[in-house]
Amino acid sequence: MEKTITLLKDLVGVPGLSGYESAIHEHLRTLWQPLTDELQTSPMGSLHALKRGSGPEPRRSILIATHMDTIGLMVSAVEDGLLRVTKVGGIDARVMPGLTVTVHAAGGELPGLVVMPPAHTLPTDVRAGTLPLEYLFVDTGLLPPQVNKQVQIGDLVTFSLPAMDLGDGTISAPGLDNRASVAVLTETLQSLQRRKHEWDVWATATVQEEVGLVGGATSGYALRPDLAVVIDVTFGSGPGAPGHETMEMDKGPSFDLGPSTHPALYQAFIAHARAQEIPFHRYAYARGSGTDADKLQLAAEGILTMVVSVPIRYMHTPVESVQVRDIQRSARLLAGFIEGLDADFLDNLVPEEASEGGR
Fold first, then answer.
1. In this predicted structure, what is the pLDDT of residue 354?
2. For residue 355, how many other CB atoms are within 10 A of its CB?
3. Domains in the chain, please, with CATH?
């Protein structure tokens, strides 16, 4: 468990807001280089790492996709030494006032606080309840001339809360969406060093998922795998969270079934999890999954896609929380599934009528 905790804390400590993933990209390139045979970078900035299989060429391939970008803020204006900010991805404004942040200015990082004006200075219709982001500021403590010199519109702002070990394998940190899944993929690659697999494996860290599922769409076209598995996070159960809309933590990953999930692949994952005695949840989504799977399944002529989700609490806040045993179970699930792929897998998976356009 300690090895997984160390990996996770390492991953959440590297910045990588949507559209600005260069730091985490280079970090993962270094981390995955000894675990794979070939590394590529897409024009969008997604990282493609190939681990070749042992089967005869031409080999089938499976893509495991995890987005590496995180949510955060961007400076939109500088007023009297204070910074107005805008969202990068889906920020929950309810938790913003009082947060500590880091402003990534050209001259170096600056600490800051998310602050709000006194209530009596606000319009009466916003004084009660959650204050919209447009009324909040970031205060660096510097005088206006210093701020004007050091900070520019477009500078990025990230949450600066440290990762916390809450005990018994529960970790809280900003950016667990989706660094928890990046940890799953990294541990999968580590496990595959000790396993023989016939299929090629594309480990993919995509960009800009939080602002439009961008990297998943382009990586699917570039790599054109036979199968794709998207590893993301889902809502973990917690105080006040409806049980039918959340997944209990420390009970394994969630298998998500809906329009972006191939039903036969979904059943194959259930069969594999049961055979390996890996606990799992089932989740149904009626429209889009909200993950890279929505774009991956549409790439080129279409890709058979599966969605596996790791439960986390307090999603899109700076205190997202995950149980590392769910990360370990998910990695064991994926490594075992990949190990079991053989030349006949697709023939046994896809009904004959699917070749004529059915699913």
1. 44
2. 8
3. 2-70+174-356 (3.40.630.10), 72-159 (2.40.30.40)
